[in-house]
Fold:
Amino acid sequence: MTFTKFAFQNMLRRKLRTFVTMAGVAVAVAALFSLLAFQRGYQNGMRDELDRLGAHVLVVPKGCPYDAASMALHGASWPCYLKMGYLEQVRKTQGVSVAAPVFMNALYGANGEQTVYLGINDDIRAVKRAWKIEGALPAQTGDIMLGATAAKNLHAQRGREYSLPGLEGVKGRVCGVLAPTQGADDNFFYMPLADAQRLFKRQGQLTHILVRLQDPNSMDDVVGALRGCEAGMEMNIVPLTHLFRTIQGMVNSTRLLLGCIALVALLVAGAGVSNTVLMAVTERTREIGVMRATGASMSDIFRLIWLETALICVIGGVIGVVVALAGAQSLEGWLRNQLPFSPTGALIHPELSVMFACLVGAAALGSVAGLLPAWRASRLSPIEAIRAT
Structure:
């Protein structure tokens, strides 16, 4: 305890220099922590999103598959559409268990708030197996089913009619309320497929088809058959597990680059800490000589300087973790604008294990960085040190 107290006091002799050194460690640890937390959050979010979607394959109009997957999961107005006739071709494809047609459209209020309407039919239940509905799916003209959040915002009650946001003069009777899914489904308004096509003047058209396979292991064969069918040239077949792997590969490539940057930052921070403590040892040469002359052993001097270095890195690591936590929301907002696809859940997922790993890394950095200055201080001759000016 005495060594720790003494090392802490020595560390505070040059407050500005010590603070700058800690700041370097904090920046490196904050970068490492954010990278690890992002990796955990993104992977967990992607798995949750695909599980909530319930489909193995997404059939969409021609275009970017990443944009299509994002629109299907999060809700948006689609720039192009599928013909209703393609649905039967998808259903007849060998290996397809169920094909659920969906028509999606988003409307925006004066304040920019988005309302997403989905036209569905009974096939959706075979895809969304995790759904729990209080009431029934919309089946008759004028029926509306609300996601949990949409129902809460509308203060909706089953059996009552409500004006539908963004659709002037149109009312819907609430036939069911979807239990919370912790995803975008909670915000959607669901209506019969024919109603949605009629209200948005897209009769005979779909935005996407959710496909569930009889055997997920036959994914490649079914995807090949869908692409080779008569309408295959007019559709984009997106295997969601493949999409996940592709996006994850892109993220991993970026993560590798960022990891290298974080490693370089840690090495630079370690060199800075070592240099700072070496300077402190030079300044305290006479003091170290007196300590040696009054009974301090070489191991005592080594331990004192090494502990001082480790303290600088550990405190810098704690500051870095705190800074990363404070800036997580801003960083997450920036990442959502940069990624081709981002899940609804938190992208930055700080876990205790990640915090612990970063702090252990900071301590290890201090341990290594302190070896040289501690060894040099312990090797000082008492007589020569006292004579030094």
